Each structure stands twice: as C-alpha cells, then as structure tokens.
Amino acid sequence: MAEQVETLQYNELAVLGNILSDSTGNQILTAVQYLTADDFTDTRNQAVFHAMLEINSKGQTPDLATVIDTLKNNKVFDAIGGLDYLNTIIENGAHVGSLEVYISRMKDRTLMDNFVGTLRDIYESATTKPIPDVSEFIGDAEKRINEISSKRSIKEAKRLGEISPSLVKRWVEQSKDFREKGIQPNGITGIPTGYEELDRLTKGWHKGHLILIGARPSVGKTAFALNLLYKVALQGTPVIFFSLEMDSESIEMRLLELASNLTSTEINSLDFAPDSTAEKLIVNPKNQQEAANVNKLQQGLATLAKLPFYVDENPGTNMRDIASRCKKLINGQNIKAGVIAIDYLGLIRPSKTSSNDNRTNQVAEISRDLKQLARDLKIPVIALSQLSRDSAKRGMDHRPQLTDLRDSGSLEQDADMVFFLYRSDYFKDDQKDGEKDDMPQHRDDENSATSQVQLLLQKNRDGSLGSIDFVFDKEHCCFNVAYDAGDNNPY
C-alpha cells in the first residue's frame, strides 16, 4: 500500500514539476485539457494545481512566484508546507519524462477509483433495494461502466500525415472485405446497399453512421427497410433487425415473399401436410401452378435459412436493452454485425432516467443513444421513424421535409443520413386538382397491386442529396427501381 501511495505521489509531483519548470506555458495548457484538482490524491497537490488553474485562467503562465502568491491569497501556502514543499515538487518532479505519460497514469487511477466506486454502488443497489426491472437495471449498470471506460483515452491533435496510416489501413481492410465477399468496389466505401442508384448517392452504408428512414403510416417503410436488409444479408453481411411492432413470423413472411417471388395469398392457399418441415414441405397441390409454387417456396425457405439475418421481436424495448442484446448476439454467437435496424423509433421505450421527461427530451436521448451505438459497435444503424402529420396538412405538395421528423430536432442533428418515402397515391397527389378530395387519402386503393414511391435523401453528411423513384410491388413486398441510368433527380 505504501509503495502504491508513493507511486501516486511520484506521478502527481511529475505533473506539477513539469508545469512549474515550463516557461512556454504549453504544459499547463496540456494539463488543463485532461486534469482537474480532484484527479490529485494528495490535498497539497490539489491546492497547488488549483492555484495553477487560477493563474492560467488569467492568461498567465504558472511559475514559482505566481504559484506562491496565489497559494498565499488562498490562505493555503503554509498548509501545503510552504516553500519547502514547492521546492520538493521542483526537485523531484522536473524533467522526469513526458507529461502525457504521467497524466495518463493519473487518469487511470481516477478511472479505477470511479470504477470501484461504481461497482460498490451497483452492488449496494442490487442487494439492498427491490429491482422492478432486472433488464433495465443491468442495462443501466452496463451504461455507467461504459461511460467510465470511454473517458480513458487521451488524444492530442494530429497532423494530417499522422492520420494517413490509419486511413490507409481502413482502405486495406475494406478492400479485403470486398474481395472476400466477391464485391466490386466501384467507388463504394461502405456496405453496398444492393441498389446501384442508391450506392451512387450514399457510397454504401458506413460504419458509425446513423441512418433514418421516415414516412407516414402505411407508406411502406418497414417493407422498404426489409428490402435493404435482405440485399445486405444476401452479400453475406450479418443483419440484426429489431422489430418492435411485428412478430418474427410476420417479418419472415415478408422476406419469404421477396425470396420466393410468391404472394402471401399464394403461400396461404397451399394445403400443407401435418408432417411438413421447413427443410421438406409436403403439400397436396391442386394444379401445376401450385406445384410450381411449392418449389419456389421451398427454395425461398432454403435461401432465408442461409442468410445471416437475425430478428429480435421484443416489444417495449429501450436503448439499453437494444445495445445489450446487440453486444450479446455479436459476442455470444461470434458474428461480425454489418447492419443493425430498428422498426421503429417511436416504439423505443424511454430509459428510466428520462421517464419523467416530455417526449421531445426522451426522443433526444434515444437519438443520442442510437448514434452512440453506431459509433461503439462501428456499424451502420438504420432507424425507422414515423413522421408527424404536418406533411398531410400542406397544400399541393405533401413531400416530407426534415421538419416533419416527429418529436425532436435531435434526430436531424444526430443522423448522418435522412431518407423519406413519399407516395403520391397516399395523398392523391397524382390526381388532377379538380379530382382531389378535401382530406388526404390514408389507404391505398385495395385493387392497386403497385405504387410509385419516391425515396428522398434530404440529409447526407458526407455526400450529395437526391431522389430515386421506385415501384413498390405490395403483393411481393418488393421495391424495384423505376427509372433507368444514373439520373438521381437532384432537388
């Protein structure tokens, strides 16, 4: 224990000695970025550093004379040991090595103290108080520990030449990943979306990015997201889909419509024998068409079975649960997650800490947590969002705008990309003025098998904006690009 205290004192003296011996003022500028007086364990060192901070705040460089004056003004000069102790700092702490090394050691000690204190607090809460929601309690504990860990690194500003090696390393890893998956880069710097037109706009889905897809209810945002994720999974890139609204069977049914090119009506019309399995369907076909459909269905099931596509259907989920389950799935099943998607943002339950706030504050916290999840796991996160009614109230043009994002401007701020889905038939914008009803139409024509859908990219942090026209084949849950070539319809 004595040796440990001596080491702590040595690190603290080294920091203070470096500052006192530096006439340029650079050392104090470095120290104030990372240290507070509370990072010092010795009360004498706390008082000295506090004096240095006061001097620096006045635009001066701390030296022996100014430190003595400040300590005397604070009436602690004698308490710290006077000039003798300051000489000890200078003699034992000056020119002993890099200041950053000793700052890092001190921060490690502070973080360890915080870590141990947090563990004690968590243990006390777990053993002395009732826990109404165990999952939420564990998620909160994990978040508190992660917050401590995130404060560990000390990073100085870098010259561009120092950044280049890590950038080249990223390119090498990206090229290796593309080669392993048999993907032609073609200027794509992220995970290919599966749509060439979309890749030209986005350059793919990028690590650490938060992507929002917004639409009014029933426009087809879940169907569109499943098309995107299906194409990603077909490349061999793992997908984790959090379905907070639909059960897993409904999600697979939609994917099966894509994989088999069959409608749900065609599938549900088949007469399955009791001993049918996913690996071997036993059906009594009524005609040749049904026999062909059975083969399509069997092939579709086989395709889905091979995909690294994971569905989590837990309703009432909060961001801590989502982050925890992502990490558990990635670590527990040893998968390399490629894309995480959440359907939809409005159904994410607020955490305990924000349960008494208004919805705007809750959404702001959820938005920050989504972005942090993307950065922590180094993967793109796609979140679906239901838009406000404002677009329905507009006059002639009901195309969504960034201001239509429901409940919080934080969504627009935190997102790297914001997409909107717009269907003219949803609002009858495709009719002539004289044929329009007074109120927008919120149901598609039941006899219409397809709809024209416009994908609007209205925020792109690293690229251009634009739009892409799709045809939504509702019976097969399929989105196909509706136009040819590279015209990305800028607006």
SSE topology:
Elements: H1 2-20, H2 26-34, H3 43-57, H4 64-73, H5 82-93, H6 99-128, H7 134-149, H8 160-181, H9 196-202, E1 210-215, H10 221-234, E2 239-243, H11 248-260, H12 264-268, H13 288-306, E3 309-312, H14 319-332, E4 339-343, H15 359-377, E5 381-386, H16 390-393, H17 410-414, E6 417-423, H18 424-427, E7 450-460, E8 466-473, E9 478-481
Parallel strand pairs: 1-5, 1-6, 2-3, 2-4, 4-5
Antiparallel strand pairs: 6-7, 7-8, 8-9
Helix pairs in contact: 1-5, 1-6, 2-6, 3-4, 6-7, 7-14, 10-11, 11-13, 14-15
Could you describe the 3D structure shown?
48% of the residues lie in helices and 11% in strands. The protein has 491 residues and is of the alpha/beta class. Among the domains are: 2-104, DNAb Helicase, Chain A, CATH 1.10.860; 189-246 and 313-481, 3-Layer(aba) Sandwich (Rossmann fold), CATH 3.40.50. Helix 6 (99-128) packs antiparallel against helix 7 (134-149). 32% of the residues are buried. Residues 1-5 and 432-444 have low confidence and may be disordered.
Question: What gyration radius follows from the Cα positions, in whole Å?
Answer: 30 Å
Mean pLDDT level:
79
Helix percent reads 40-55%
- C-alpha end-to-end distance: 68 Å
Q: Please, how many helices?
A: 18
Per CATH, the class of one domain reads Alpha Beta
Which key features would you list for this structure?
491 residues; alpha/beta; DNAb Helicase, Chain A; Rossmann fold; nine-stranded mixed β-sheet; elongated; disordered N terminus
What is this structure, in a nutshell?
This protein is 48% helix and 11% strand. The protein is an alpha/beta fold and 491 residues long.
